Amino acid sequence: MSRIIAGVAGGNPLTSVPGTATRPTTDRVKEALFSRLESLAVIADARVLDLYAGSGSLGVESASRGARSVDLVEFDAKASDICQRNADMVNQILSAKRVSVHRSKVESFLERAGNQDMWDLVFLDPPYPLDEPALSAVLAKLAPHLDDAAVVVVERSSRSPEPEWPEALECFADKKYGETKLWFAEPA
């Protein structure tokens, strides 16, 4: 069972998406990821975007740890409903609506984002079948919506190649955790 690891809502269980349509980030990987992000001082008061959100685990963890706002973007109807349940739980604990759910394809969401829509921390955990050119296109659409000091985290299979970064983004670190690999990027 997945849970919120730390922060105001720490210890609360998360509703998981049934079936095999999503790959939830394990608690071990999530704990290591958030330890790294806290050392980079990018969570507190951040505007967070969780693309291909699945259950919304990474986004609601960010809200629990002090993010100012979180946008969960998920197209699958079942997963989007789970995101909403997890968002409602965290918003209730926080006594504020910090987490919003958007049932949308990631590409459409980014195309609709206005010039004022900027994020400080972005998670991308796309389905493994998403090919590298499609991921690169999403990263290119995302780049204009990043704050100057933003951090982008891409989670993929450890067998996947490094993402093809658009010119506006550069990778500054990567880390492998068993079958999972994380890449960290920032605006170039």
From TrEMBL:
Keywords of the record: Methyltransferase, Transferase
Gene3D superfamilies cross-referenced by the UniProt entry: Vaccinia Virus protein VP39
GO molecular function: 16S rRNA (guanine(966)-N(2))-methyltransferase activity
EC number(s) on file: 2.1.1.171
A Pfam family recorded for this sequence: Cons_hypoth95
Coiled coil: none
PANTHER family to which the protein is assigned, alphabetical: METHYLTRANSFERASE
Protein name: 16S rRNA (Guanine(966)-N(2))-methyltransferase RsmD
Organism of this sequence: Paenarthrobacter nitroguajacolicus
High-level lineage: Bacteria, Bacillati, Actinomycetota, Actinomycetes, Micrococcales
